[in-house]
Amino acid sequence: MKVEFAPINIPLKRRIQTIAVLQWIFSFLLLAEFCCGFFVILILGNFWFLAVLYLLWLYLDWETPCTGGRRSQWVRNWTVWKYFREYFPIHLIKTSDLNPNHNYLLGFHPHGVLVAGAFGNFCTGPSFKNLFPGLTPYLHIMPIWFGCPFFREYIMSAGMVSASKESVSYVLNKEGGGHASIIVIGGAEESLNAHPGSLTLNILKRKGFIKMALKHGAHLVPVFSFGENELFKQVANPKGSWLRNVQEKLQKIMGFALPLFHARGVFQYSFGLIPYRQPIHTVVGSPIPVKRNLNPTTEEIEQLHALYLQKLRKLFEEHKRNYGIPEHKSLIFE
Predict the structure, then answer these.
(1) Is the pLDDT of residue 11 over 80?
(2) Residue 253 has pLDDT above 90, yes or no
(3) Are 307 and 214 within 8 A, CB to CB?
(4) How far apart are CA 51 and CA 234, in angstroms?
(5) What is the largest CA-CA distance in the chain?
């Protein structure tokens, strides 16, 4: 394989952007394991008492990821995130006002490999606050990550909370409105479809978010992130292949998927784990008004789910020309 090296005279700003994305990749793929290893070292070493104190803290603080988390504006506004967003770059596009007197459930599509658009737009910087004043975003992620020592503090500081039913209910139940739950509807399973050009969404069987919106009277907002699937290439894993079967079995056992992806490196463009410089445009659609219904029937859930799919498809069709999607390509719902 011929290696294409990066030019020597690349501007300093672009190199800083690459370093910013490199630390994000490290945080996403290895920081949790590093934190667990450090905790084990504390237990086995001379500082075991610090580990005991932290376990006590963990016990007392266990419910925090399900009760709104513990965000830090200082962490969310780190300069490194500015360079991270500029690398791709990442943009948030508003199509309609969201009244801060209501609570909202934003359905994010597609998952992509590492959900870069969701993190960049809802966990870093002022974009969301500037476009939707009065609303506080909460990005819901898998509960397993909040059981990891130290790592849980870091992800909560960025505004991430658990994706458990209790956590979503806590956010959507807040009096006076002004809160937005962001849920990546396709989940880990959808990351296995994250190939460049793919428009397949795992959504037909996912109706829990619809039920939550009905129970709390939270307005539904479809969100489509153009460019999310273009950041990495993934080893071919068509449905029915041995690799896909193994990935799906591991996903059911562990709760998260293991896509075999690759992109570019730091000093060359031929291989590595750093995403390609592909723009991400995360388009926030118009809200679907939802009336509170504590005991929705199956028919009511199906009806709202069908309306949501209709609005999501419309959002995609209205904006796909702006972001390089061929006219003949449409979303595929599975």
Answers:
(1) yes
(2) no
(3) no
(4) 39
(5) 64
